[in-house]
Amino acid sequence: MNSTRPHSQSGITLQFRGVTKTFYDRARSVEALQPFTTDVAAGEFVCLLGPSGCGKSTLLNIVAGLELPTAGQVLAGGKPITAPGSERALLFQEAALFPWLDVQANVEFGLRQQRRSAQERADMARSLLAMVHLTGFEHSAVHQLSGGMRQRVALARALAIDPAVILMDEPFGALDAITRDRMHAELEAIWSATGKTILFVTHNVREALALGDRILTFSPRPGRVVQEVRVTLPRPRSLESHALVDMAAQILSVMRTAEANAAALPA
Ligand SMILES: Nc1ncnc2c1ncn2[C@@H]1O[C@H](COP(=O)(O)OP(=O)(O)OP(=O)(O)O)[C@@H](O)[C@H]1O
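That is the input. Now the predicted structure with adenosine-5'-triphosphate docked in place:
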């Protein structure tokens, strides 16, 4: 995998310091996120788990530099984040590929902007497509691919710019269960090979347990962390293992309590 990428950049730290977000428009304000503080180690895989609307995407967008916090700050590798940067790549539930480009050209997109030679771009794209098991699909059109394949292309395109941090916003939420399990295994293999820092948003407890070194569970909006779990189960993890099923039940019970508490509050 590293034949064309000898200097692949591994992960960097993320430090969240009292990160808060309230959205304002003319009529009202929406408090999306209460002060959030944590340290993510370089190369750590952290899952942000919570119900719809609890502010998970908002937090990811702040790390991506697409939103600014209302208060607090996030530091990436010790530097405050104020704008998007090539050391942070964001992937969405729907792979945002360029439909007019074929698979290889999509992966090469960021490399073109880095002014790499055509040969270098092609070598890197082919190596990344092999890593995500898409050898043979280099010249397929995006619309010919399944959802799982599109996510693989999006991952290869993100890896092409060699980010230190990968931000994933429910990337496998639209996939069937079997494809999702396969994607989990592939993502885990890529993460172990590259040592990138990953922040992964999901509302699926078992997905968080399959992947995360650490799971931060959020309450319904305004999001605040109601539980932090370090997952020390050996990898690769079996979703059927008793230990994982027990942990899932325990996390779900915390989520249900947070949901009930939120419902009991006046609107
Ligand atoms: N630009 C915006 N203007 C106003 N309110 C917003 C804006 N973006 C998000 N919100 C609100 O902030 C809250 C948190 O939204 P966010 O998308 O971060 O939640 P989420 O946990 O990612 O939800 P989901 O899992 O459904 O994607 C929601 O109530 C949402 O309506």
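Residues 23, 30, 32, 50, 52-58, 203, 221 surround adenosine-5'-triphosphate (CB under 6 Å).
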